[in-house]
Amino acid sequence: MAKFLECDGVELRPLEPDDLNTLYMWESEADAWKTNSVSAPYSRHLLLEYLRNYDADIYKTREVRMMLLYQGDAVGTVDVFNFDPVNSRAEIGLYVAAEHRGQHIGCRAIALVAEKYAFGVLGVHQVYCTVGADNDAALVAFADAGFERKAVLSQWLRRGKGEFADAVIMQRLAR
Fold first, then answer.
1. Helix, strand or coil for residue 140?
2. pLDDT band (50, 70, 90) for residue 1
3. Among 15, 27, 125, 163, which residue is least crowded by beta carbons within 10 Å?
């Protein structure tokens, strides 16, 4: 039986309490902090409370986080956030664990969440992302998923003490 958010070995599913240790490991990666605007790791306790209180009603919280699986194994997360039903748009974020990068999993996950969830379920007119101009892998993944570069925001993302990186805004319209 086909799953709702599944295609070519890539599956998106709701977060579960059993995801705590995996999320904790990923959130503790200092390299990931550069790309997700986090300045310190989340504690296990904070993540546990997040999972306990998680509300996937995007109309109430304006965001939903899904676990990204590849061939049945958890390999990352996909976020739909900044949901704006008035203007019919939402932002998409992606995290793929280091050991699973370079396999085009992210591109497939982005396309899946855009097509089946954002355009299909939510019925939004457009999805977009904000990607560091120095994050070549993410820029390629979003481009391969049909997103087009629309703008560059100079020195938009803080990378360290006194260091800033440009951000690229990419967008995909519903067909």
1. helix
2. very low
3. 163
Largest CA distance in the chain: 52
The Cα–Cα gap between 16 and 109 comes to 19
- Structure token digits, residue 114: 């855009």
Among candidate residues 65, 61, 64, 59, the one with its CA nearest the CA of residue 85: 59
Look up the pTM and report it.
0.90
Strand order in the sheet with 10-14: 6-7, 10-14, 64-70, 73-84, 89-96, 126-132, 163-173, 148-160
Query: Residue 126: beta bridge partners?
Result: 89, 173
- CA dist., res. 47 & res. 91, Å (int): 22
Phi, psi (rounded to 5 degrees) for 55: -125, 110
C-alpha to C-alpha distances, 59 to 42, 63, 96, 109, 143, nearest whole angstrom: 25, 8, 26, 22, 28
pLDDT tens digit string along 77-126? 999 999 999 999 999 999 999 999 999 999 999 999 999 999 999 999 99
Residue type, 138: A
